Amino acid sequence: MNSPIRSAEDYIASLRGRKLRVFLFGELVEEPVDHPLIRPSINAVSETFELAARNPELGTAVSPYTGERINRFLHVAGSAQDLILQNKMQRRLGQLTGTCFQRCVGMDAINALHSVTFDIDAAHGTGYHGRFIAFVTEMQRAGFVIGGAMTDAKGDRSKAPHEQADPDVFVHVSRRTDEGIWLRGAKAHQTGCINSHWLLVMPTMRLGPGDEDYAIVGAVPVDAPGITYIYGRQSCDTRSMEGGDIDPGNRKFGGQEAMIIFDDVFVPRERVFMDREIEFAATLVERFTGYHRRSYVCKSGVGDVLIGAAATIADFNGVEKVSHVRDKLVEMTHLNETIYATGIAASYQAVPMKSGVWLCDDMLANVCKHHVTRFPYEISRLAQDLAGGLMVTQPSEQDLRHAEIGPLMRKYLQGRADIPVEDRLRILRLIENMTLGRNAVGYLTESLHGAGSPQAQRIQILRQMQLDFKKELAKTLAGIESGDGVAAEFVDYMGVSGCFRHLPAFASDRRHAGHSPAPGGAARRGAVHHLLFGDVAGALYLADQVRAAGTLRGALATECLGLCGNRRAHAGRGPVVRCRPPAAQSVFHRLRGHAL
Ligand SMILES: Cc1cc2nc3c(=O)[nH]c(=O)nc-3n(C[C@H](O)[C@H](O)[C@H](O)COP(=O)(O)OP(=O)(O)OC[C@H]3O[C@@H](n4cnc5c(N)ncnc54)[C@H](O)[C@@H]3O)c2cc1C
Ligand code: SF4
User: Fold this and answer.
1) Which numbered ligand comes closest to the C-alpha of 302?
2) In the chain, what percentage of residues exceed pLDDT 70?
3) Does any ligand 2 atom lie closer than 6 A to the CB of residue 342?
4) Which of 81, 450, 472, 521 could, after both became Cys, cross-link 487 (CB 3.0–4.6 A)?
5) Is 296 marked active-site?
6) d(CA 139, CA 437)
7) How far apart are the CA of 105 and the centre of ligand 2, in A?
8) Is there a catalytic annotation at residue 476?
9) pLDDT value, residue 481
10) Considering the domain 295-461, what is its CATH architecture?
11) Which of the four pLDDT bands, split at 50, 70 and 90, describes residue 260?
12) Hey, what CATH class is 8-278 in?
């Protein structure tokens, strides 16, 4: 690729002639760009370039690395506002495509790796961060699309990677030299991988001793030798091969998932951003999923389309003003906006990391994604309710065009007399497409499992729900004497600190946290966030930022040292440390008197 990819046309041209090994229906695909089943997914990615051209404020950002405007999907968030704009862009693209536009996994991966590579270097004296920044800069200059390859095939879910009967069910290093590493294994369900230029390969879960060869992050070109893609089927996908434009439902746009097989794929050292640092695998997964779980505001954009489709069919059927119909549209809107609200709030409550990137609020990001595992199903149920049964029983487009059958269809499938029958059939096909056809993959099942199945969010919510603190709040108001005074001084996940026994101070702090994104407030929230995730180094750094360094830093370090006894890891202000969250919380309990 010589000239940078800036337009949709550049993008589509850049995908041609790559000679990828893509299998679909048991055959090698000669040119994915021209395949009618694949092309709608390419169109969806193209829309990210179209938006950047049409609305640069939303679709682009100025890169600190190139000094130029780049596509926002390649931008490293330098503020909470950057993360908020990501969410607004995602909602808009969901509205424009009605499907998955595929670029968020890569965007969230570069943001997560920014801080993780920095932290690994601080802990181990490695040189990952500089190499990673060089990689990101190159991607930004070229305007490449990056896919995020995290989920392994995983085999027996009860076993660690090194315990599996077949070592290849998790991607791992099969060979290592001074020049680089070789990757072997498979990544499953990879969104937009064939439509990308580069893949960021990352571990999928917490790793432990014995898993060192699985603790690997590397960037690989999509057309690297040794990679095979097996294209994933989507419900009703062959409708886009039938030639018509009604039955596909959404003729232009679709999503894409494929399995990627790595058969000893070489990654040069300068493209390796983690190698054997097992203790950072969980940190990477948590930070990535933090970003990605609030990226699911994309579904609120798709939800806007479905609400619009439901309102349209009600209108075409002559019932739009009926009270239960309006109430159902209100319910759909309420659910949809709840997804958006929690996602964008997670971005709003972002905190700066030591590397300079901003990280969203993990609790709210998990709550957003957890809504997403449920609300699109209810919104779909209501859309199907309003659609009526014809959505799944209507005859084909060929029948509509048939000389004998067509007029019968137009006679008997009429809704309101002033609405063309074909329009009625088109909107029903769109609802079918989104709720049980091709784009239901993105709107429903992807909402359930993408960025982790529902239980993964419940675990994160459980870790951060601060029950002791909440019990203390209740006991105080009920006049119950607290046994140990736990949480008399506490910082909660809203970033609100202070002693709730002194309500005026609490209230003033709440005002500060609520209305001012001033560095002090953000840093304080950040310190809490870091500590709850056992990232002591991050907490200490942010404590420095609020100019409470001296005693507080010492106190934090001492407390954490006492809790985990991991002297090496906690030495100085160095590395990220994995504390158990309860341990991190009790650091706070024991630090009463030290205001962050
Ligand atoms: C449409 C789609 C697009 C996707 N895109 C991407 C992508 O671009 N990049 C990427 O990296 N990943 C992607 N994913 C993968 C996604 O992150 C995974 O689907 C998700 O993490 C769940 O993994 P799984 O599908 O293997 O399900 P499983 O792990 O098999 O989970 C099935 C069930 O078993 C439970 N379970 C699994 N393991 C355990 C355990 N050890 N203990 C208790 N319960 C367990 C789960 O909670 C769940 O209920 C995508 C997924 C989908 C569906
Ligand atoms: S499902 Fe949504 S967040 Fe994930 S890549 Fe697709 S559009 Fe982006």
Assistant:
1) 2
2) 80
3) no
4) 472
5) yes
6) 34
7) 7
8) no
9) 82
10) Up-down Bundle (1.20)
11) very high
12) mainly beta
